[in-house]
Amino acid sequence: KIGGLSTLLKQYIQSQSLMFLHKQPAVQVHIHCASAEELLDQLLHAELDLIFIDYNLQQHNLISQPIATETFYLVSRSENLAALQHNEIPQTLFNCQQSSQQQTLMLNYLEQQHIHFQRHCQLQCYSHALEAVQQGLGFSIIPSTHLPEARQRELYTITIPELNRTISMLWHAHHPSTLLHTFTALFNTEKSP
């Protein structure tokens, strides 16, 4: 049983899951989406065997293996950051599911840049957030995995070097399953989109 943030499934879990199923035709894989906090709780209570979250966690009896690092980008229809700072464009922030830790970093960055918003909409996927930005409904902060889509939509992007996240997978240190170790071995190199 594998758990992950919905925003991580396609980029980080999907291809390895399919490769694993191809190599292990008798194995059943169940993938569950939830918040990082819920996933960690389910892992600690042995309801999940492996989880994928958007931060690195060091905890007794758990193995945490970073698999990627993502940088974030501010996305807007305006190329001028000052327009966001002076409320010259619609001030709705669109984002997707992320850990409370990542959410706090994002909100702190916006505050430091004097970018204020009137409402905050959390959507199911970054494509929806980018569509809302393209329609002029507000702005978003997206991870680098969605940068090609933002550029295809001809949206303006600004790199936020101080805002990045480590994608990690976690499992119990003494998990008895060799299948789990076979699956985690598929992530033996860290990727950065």
Describe this structure in words.
The chain is α/β, with parallel strands linked by helices and 193 residues long. The chain contains 7 helices and 8 strands, in the order E-H-E-H-E-E-H-E-H-E-H-E-H-E-H. It has helices spanning 6-23, 36-44, 81-85, 100-112, 126-134, 147-152, 178-184, and strands at 2-4, 31-33, 50-53, 62-76, 92-96, 119-123, 139-143, 156-172. Strands 2-1-3-8-4-7-5-6 form an 8-stranded mixed sheet, with helices on both faces. The longest helix is centred in the first third of the chain and has 18 residues, at 6-23.
Largest sheet, spatial ordering of strands: 2-1-3-8-4-7-5-6
The outline comes out as: elongated
Termini separation comes to: 26 Å
**Rg value:** 18 Å
Number of strands: 8
Which residues form runs of ≥5 with pLDDT under 50? 189-193
Labels describing this entry:
single chain, 193 residues, alpha/beta, 8-stranded mixed beta sheet, 7 helices, 8 strands, disordered C terminus
Short structural summary:
The chain has 193 residues and is of the alpha/beta class. The protein has helices at residues 6-23, 36-44, 81-85, 100-112, 126-134, 147-152, 178-184; strands at 2-4, 31-33, 50-53, 62-76, 92-96, 119-123, 139-143, 156-172.
Any chance you could write out the topology, listing elements then pairs?
Layout: E1 2-4, H1 6-23, E2 31-33, H2 36-44, E3 50-53, E4 62-76, H3 81-85, E5 92-96, H4 100-112, E6 119-123, H5 126-134, E7 139-143, H6 147-152, E8 156-172, H7 178-184
Parallel strand pairs: 1-2, 1-3, 5-6, 5-7
Antiparallel strand pairs: 3-8, 4-7, 4-8
